[in-house]
Amino acid sequence: MNKQADLYIEESNEVYDALVVGSGVSGGWAAKELCERGLKTLMLERGRVVEHQKDYHTEGKGVWQYPNRMKVDNLLLEEQYKIQQQCYAFHDGTKHFFGNDKDLPYSTEEGTKFSWIRANQLGGKSLLWHRQSYRFSNYDFEANKLDGHGNDWPIRYKDIAPWYSHVEKHAGISGNYDGLDQLPDSEFLPPFDFTKPELSIQKKFAELFPDRPMVMGRTAHLSKATELHLSQGRVTCQARNECQKGCSFGAYFSTQSSTLPAAAKTGNLHIAANSVVHSLIYDESSKRVTGVRVIDNETLKPREYYAKMVFLCASTLGSTQILLNSTSKSFPNGLANSSGVLGHYLMDHNYNAGAFGFVKGFEDEFYSGRRPTGIYIPNFQFEPKRYKKGYQRGYALAGGSGRANWQQMSRGKGIGADFKHQLTQAGTWFFNLQAQGEMLPRYENQVSLHPTKKDKWGIPQLHINCQWSDNEKAMMADAEATAKDMLIKAGLENVSSYNSIEGGPPGLAIHEVGTARMGHNAKDSVLNQFNQSHDIANLFVTDGSSFCSSAVVNPSLTFMALTARAVDYAVKEMKAGRI
Amino acid sequence: MKKHILDTAVNKRQFMQGLAVLMGAGVSAQLMSGQALASALSYQAESDSTNQALTLFTEKQMQCLHDICAQVLPQTDTPSAAQLGVHGFIDHQLSVCFSKEQQQQAIAIVEKIKQMAMSHWQKSYVELTAKQQILLLQQIEAQQAGFDEQDGAAFSLLKSLIVYGYFTTEIGATQVLAYQAVPGGFKGSIPYASVGKSYGSLAYY
Question: Listed GO molecular functions (chain A) (predicted)?
Answer without folding.
Answer: flavin adenine dinucleotide binding; oxidoreductase activity, acting on CH-OH group of donors
